[in-house]
Amino acid sequence: FIFDFFNARLHFGCSRMQMYPLEMEGNSNPKTTNKPKYSKFTQQELPACKPLLTPEIVIAAFALIGALFVPIGLASLHASRQVVELVHRYDASCVPVDDKVGFIQNSRTDKTCTVTMTVPKYMKSPIHVYYLIDGFYQNHRRYVRSRSDKQLRYKSAAHLTSDCVPEGDTADHAPIVPCGLVAWSLFNDTYTVRVNGVVTQVNKKDIAWKSDKNNKFGKNIYPSNFQKGRLIGGATLNESIPLSEQEDLIVWMRTAALPTFRKLYGRIEKDINANDNVTVVIQNNYNTYSFGGSKALVLSTASWIGGKNNFIGIAYLTIGGLCLSLAMGFLVLYMVKRRNFGDPSNLSWNR
Amino acid sequence: MQRFVYINDESCRDSYRDNRVSNTKYTLWNFLPKNLLEQFRRFMNQYFLLIACLQLWPTITPVSPATTWGPLAIIFIVSASKEAWDDYNRYLSDKKVNERRIWVVKDGIRRQIKARGIHVGNIVWLHENDEIPCDLVLIGTSDPQGICYVETAALDGETDLKTRIIPSICADLSSEQLGKIKGVVECPNPDNDIRRFDANMRLFPPIIDNEKCPLTINNTLLQSCYLRYTEWACGVAIYTGNETKSGMSRGTAEPKLTAADSMIDKLTVAIFIFQIAVVLLLGLAGNIWKDSHGCKLWYLMYPAERPWYDFLVIPLRFELLCSIMIPISIKVTLDLAKGVYAKFIDCDDQMFDPETNTPAHSANTAISEDLGQVEYILSDKTGTLTENRMIFRRCYISGVLYGDKTGDALKDARLLNAVSSKDPDVVKFLMVMALCNTVVPIKSNDGTISYKAQSQDEEALVNAASNLNMLLTSKDSSGIAEICFNGSKFYYEVLDVLEFTSDRKRMSIVVKEVKSGKFLLLTKGADEAIFPRSCPGEQTKTYLEAVEMYSHLGLRTLCLGCRDLEEDEYKEWSKKFQDASCSLDNREHKIAEVCNSLEQGIHILGITAIEDRLQDGVPETIKLLRKAGINVWMLTGDKQTTAIQIGLLCNLITPESKGQLLSINGKTEDDILQSLERALTIMKTALERKDLAFVLDGWALEIILKRSLESFTKLAMMSRTAICCRMTPLQKAQLVGILKSSGSLTLAIGDGGNDVRMIQEANVGVGISGREGLQAARAADYSIGKFKFLRRLILVHGRYSYNRTAFISQYSFYKSLLICFIQILFSFSSGLSGTSIFNSISLMAYNVFYTSLPVMTIIFDKDISEATVLRYPQILLYSQAGRLLNRSTFAEWFGRSLYHAFVVFLITINAYADEKSDMEELSMVALSGCIWLQAFVVTLDTNSFTCPQITLIWGNFVAFYMINLILSAVPTLQMHTVMWHLCNQPSYWITMALIVAAGMGPVLALRYLRNVYRPSAIDVLQQIEQTDGHAQAPGNLESSTGTYLDYLLTDLRRNKSSIHQPLLSDSASSR
C-alpha cells in the first residue's frame, strides 16, 4: 500500500528534462521546452468543493441529527424495555456460614443452594440463562495471555504450553490440555431449573460461537492432565469428550473485556408465563469469595438490540436532545446576533 | 603539501588513485550497515528500536512484537529503498562516465582506454566537443597559437567560452613530441578552488629546458568541462577521479531543518516527557494494586517468590503500551508529503519562465514549509531584481554628456558626428571600450562577429563600440588584436592583462601599437578605483559629477582611462609581473601589488553608463511581499546611489513624506557608530509613522560588526527594509547569519557566484538561473527563472505547505494519542495490569494503514484559493507567526484526542456490557469507533474536497471494513469471525453513529461558533470567497508592468534631484 503510494510519488506524472542540461545549446532549440506538462492534478487545480460552516448548514445538520437520534433512541429504549430480565445474586445467600472462603474451599461440604424467583412478565422462549460474575478480571494481563490457542486447535501442538505459565505442565512435565489459567479457572457452578416445580430442561447445546467450535477447538483433542495439580481451580472436564464439544469451556475461554460480565449458561426453550415461580437449584462451587466478587443468576429474553441495556437508548435521547437544543440555540443566536458573513471589515492583520 | 606529477612515467602510477569517479554513498556490501547506522542517528528511530527490543521480552509485552517491528521495518525499508534507488542512479551515471572511451598516449602510441583507467601523469588526447575526463594541464592543442576554448558551464555555470592556453614551455612542441615528453608538474594537493591553480612545470630531456614554467588556472582543463572550437587538445592528468576540482567541490550539504520540523521535534519531546510521567504513575499504581488486590485473585496464581525485577514489569508494560503515543509513522508521512510539495513546485507551470526555458525546481525537497514562514528576504540586486542585460546608454567624454536627451548615446547625433569626424578623444575612448577587455570575438561563417564575454558589462561596451564603428574583429592567440575603425584596420599586440578582481575593482591591459611600437596601458574600472590613480591636475570633479548623475538614474558607471608607457618602464615592470605570476604562495596579492604600481597617473578619457533594466514584475512582487509582512533587504555589490535608485524603482523604499531612508555612514569609525545610534533612535521613535529603511555600505558594516553588533542587530530587527551596498560575498552571508541568529527565518535570493555563500547560509536559499550562470541555482534549495516567481513560491507553495504540514503533524499526534488514551482508560478496568485492549494486528495496521492514507489527502487541500492569497497577502502572517502549529493548537488537538478517547471508551464499554463484553468484540468496536471518528475529523478539517481526497478518506473507510472482514475469515486469528458478528448486529452500527455524534458534535459546535462569532482571517477569507463567488483571477492582479515602470522611470528622470535629496535628509553625512 505504502509502496504503491511511494512509487506514485516518484512518477508523479510530471515529465521533464534534466534540470541542468550540460548542453546549454540544447535550450535554444524551441522544440525542446522544459515547460512542465499541464495537468489539473500537478497544478493543484482539481475541481474542489468547499463547504463552509454557514449557519444554515450547521443548524440544519444539528436539527437533522437530533431528528434522527430521538426516534432511534426511543426505539432502542423500547426494545430494551421489552426484554424481561431476572437477576438473582446468590453468592452471599448460598453460603450459610461466616467463613465463606473456608466454606467454598472445603470440598466435602454440601454446596447445594436453592433460589426462587417470580417471573414478573411473560417470557418468550428462548430464555437465556447467564451467570454473572462481578469483580473477576478475566482481562488481567497475567490471566488473559495464559492460554495456548495452538494447543486447543492442533493435536500435535499439545506440548506448546510455554504461554500457559504458571499452569502449563504438571509437576512431572506432562502438558496439561487445555493449559493455562483461563481454562484452569473454568466456572463450575451448575443450575437446575424448575418452573412451577416442573424440571425444565436448560439446553446447553450451541451456547458457544459456531466458529469457535469449528475452528478454534479441535474435534480430536481431549482433555488430559486437567485439574490434576496440587491446586484445583474450577471445573473439571470429561476426558472422553473432545474440546470442540466442551461448550462451557469454549464460552469461558472467550474472555470478557470487563471485570463484570455475563456468560451464557444455557437456554430454556419454553415460554414462561407471568407470575410463574422459577426455582433454581445451584451447586455453588465457584470461589468468588476470596477476592470479594459476586455471582448472580440471570434469566433474560432478547430483542433486536440484544439483552436489557438502556444505555444506548438513553444516550441517543440525550445526544438527540442536545443537538436539537443546539440547533435551537444557534438559530436564536443567529437571529439575535446577526453577523455579516464574509465581511472584509472583520479582517484584522494584527500579529 | 605538494604533489609531484611525473609526466608519462609508468613507475609512479600507483601513488595516486585512478580516474574512477564515484558519487555513490554506498557500496553493495556496506549498504545495509551504513544505511541502518545513518537511520539510527535519528532520535525517533533509536527510541522505536528500544521499544521494539523491549517487546521481545514476553513478560512485559502487551502485544506481539510485530506491532513495532512491522512498522519499523516498513519505515526502514521505505527510507532505505529510496536511498538505494538514488544511489543506484548515481552508480549508473558514474558507470557511464567511467566506461567512456578516452584516447591516451602511452610511449608515443595513441590508445583508447576506459576513462576510469586514466592515471595521474597520463597524457590524455581530446577531440572537439569531448567532455574532459579529469583535471589536465594543457600541453598541446591543434591551434598553432596554443589556445583552446572550453565551456565551463557544468563546473561554474558560466555559459561563455573560456580561453585556455598552453604553458610557454610547451609552445613549440610538435604533436609527435607531445606523446613522448617527460617532465614533472609540481602542484598543490587536490582542493576545490576552481579559480586557482598555482603550479610549476619542468620538462626533462630530450626537450632540454630546465627552466621552471609557472602554471595557472588558464593552463588547465578541468573535469566535466567541454572542449569547444578546437580540433584537438592534449594534457597531462593532474588530479583524477574524485580528487579533481569538480569532484572536491561536490559536497553533501548539511540537511536543513525547517521551523515546522523543530516545532514538531519540540512537541515530540513534550509528549515523550508526558508519556514517561504517565508510565511512572500508572506503573506505581499498578504495583500498588497488584500488592493490595491482585494477590487475592486466586485465578492469577501470583507466585509467593518474585524475581528482583518484578517491580519493573508493570511500568515497562505501560511504557510499551504508551509507546504508540509518539507516532511511528510521522516521519514517513511528512517525508512523503514534503516530496509531493516539492513536486508541486517543480510542476507549477505558472512558475515556468518561457524566456530562459527554465521551470522552477526544488533541489531540497524537505523545506517547503519554511517558504511559508519567511520573515526576511535578502535579495541580490544585479540579475535578481534587474535583468542583468547590460545596455550601453550614455557616456561622458571630455565635457560632453552624450545620450542626455535621447536617453541613448548610440542615437545621439553629436556622438555620431564626433565619430565620423574622428574626434581624437572620442576615438581613444572607443578604442578603450573595444580593447580593454577579455572578450573573445567569434567570427561565424557568414562573416558576422559575435562576442563571448565573461562579464556582461564588457560585452555591452564592445557591442556599443562596434555600433559606433569601432569594431573588434579578431583576437589571435599571439595577442594581436585587430580593430576596424571606419573601415581602416589597426593592430594592437596585447602584452598583459591585469585582471579584474573584486578588491581591485578595475582591470587593465597593456598593449603595443603594432604600427608605431608605442606601449599603452588601457584601463577601466569603478570611479573610486580610477580617480585616485589619475594623473595630477586631472579635472576629476566634472567626471565625478557625471558619475553621480548617472548613478542617480540607476545606471552602472565605468570610468575609462589610458596611459602611455615608456618601453623601459614596461620591460622592468613586466619582469616583476612575471615573477609575481610565478610565485607559489600569496600570488594574488603580489600580482595586485605589481599591477597597482603600473596603474598610476592615468589619463581619464570618460565615463560609460550602462543600463540594467529591472526584471519584469519586480516592483509588484516586492510590494506584495512587503504587504505580506516580509521584510525585504537588498544586498548588492553595487554603488550606494545606484542601489538606492533601484530600491526606489522596485518599491523597496518609499520616497520622502511617507518614507525615510537612514544612511549609516561616516568618515571615521566613530562617525559610523554615531550614525548607527542615531538611526536606531529615529527608528524607535518614528517607526509607526513612516516607512523607514536604512542604507549602509560594506566598509560601515565591517566596522559595525566589529564594534557594535548588538545595536546593529536591534536595528536589523526593527527595520523592514535595508539596502546594503558594496557587500562582499562574505558580508552578505554574515548579514544572513545575524538575522538567523536573532531567530528570524531568512530567505536569500541571488543569481551569481557571489551569492552562493549567502544562499547556503540562509534558511531557504533561492537561486535565479540567470545570466551569471547556474552557480547560485545549484547551491540553492529552490531555483526559479525570475524574481517575480518568488511571490508564488512563498505565498502559494510555501503557505500551503506550511498549512498542510501543520495539519499532518498534529493529526498524527492526535490519532496516536487517541489510541493511547483508550489503552490507558482500559487499563483502569483491567486491574492496571497493562493489558492491551487492541490486538496486535489492529495496532500495527492502525498507524500504517488505517490512518496514514486519509491524512495524506490533506496535501491536496487549499484553505483559500491562490487568487485570494495573492489578493490578501497579509494572510501569510498566519503561517509566518506559526499560528497553525504551536503549543496552543497542539493543546487543542491534545484535548480533542482525550475527549474522543473518553467518548469511544465509555460508549463502547457501556454499549458492550454484560453478555456482550467479549474482549475481541469490544476491541473491534473501540477500534472502529476510532476509525469513524478520524474519518470525520479529517473531513471536518479539510477545507476543499477534491476527488482524490474524497476517494482516499472514504475509500480508506471502506478498506478498513474490507480488511477486517477478510481478517475475520482467517481461522487462526483471535479475531476470527468477530467482524462478521459485529456487522450483523444493529447495535454495532447504532453504537458507531453514537460515537460519531458524541465525538464530533461538540467539535462542530465549537468550530461553528468560532467561525461565525470570532472568525480568524482565514475563516473570513473563506467566507468572502464563498460570498463573492468570483474571486479575482490571478492574472488580473498583474498590472501592466511596462507602463508602470515607464511611468516611474520618466517621473524619476524629471524630478531626479527633488526626490533624491530629501530622501537622504537625515543621513549622518553625505558623501
Automatic annotation (TrEMBL), chain A:
The chain crosses the membrane at residues 57-79, 314-336. The keyword Transmembrane applies. Pfam families: CDC50. Keywords: Membrane, Transmembrane, Transmembrane helix. GO terms for cellular component: endoplasmic reticulum; Golgi apparatus; plasma membrane. The keyword Transmembrane applies. It is found in: Membrane. Belongs to the CDC50/LEM3 family. This is ALA-interacting subunit. The lineage of its organism: Eukaryota, Viridiplantae, Streptophyta, Embryophyta, Tracheophyta.
TrEMBL record, chain B:
GO terms for molecular function: ATP binding; ATP hydrolysis activity; ATPase-coupled intramembrane lipid transporter activity; magnesium ion binding. Residues 777-1016 form the P-type ATPase C-terminal domain. It is found in: Endomembrane system; Membrane. The keyword Nucleotide-binding applies. Its main location: membrane. It holds the Pfam family E1-E2_ATPase. It is an enzyme of class 7 (translocase). Its EC number is 7.6.2.1. One of its GO terms (biological process) is phospholipid translocation. Keywords: ATP-binding, Magnesium, Membrane, Metal-binding, Nucleotide-binding, Translocase, Transmembrane, Transmembrane helix. The chain crosses the membrane at residues 267-288, 893-912, 924-940, 952-974, 986-1006. PROSITE patterns: ATPASE_E1_E2. The keyword Transmembrane applies. This is Phospholipid-transporting ATPase. Residues 5-69 form the P-type ATPase N-terminal domain. NCBIfam families: ATPase-Plipid (TIGR01652), ATPase_P-type (TIGR01494). Its cofactor is Mg(2+). It comes from Aegilops tauschii subsp. strangulata. Coiled coil: none annotated.
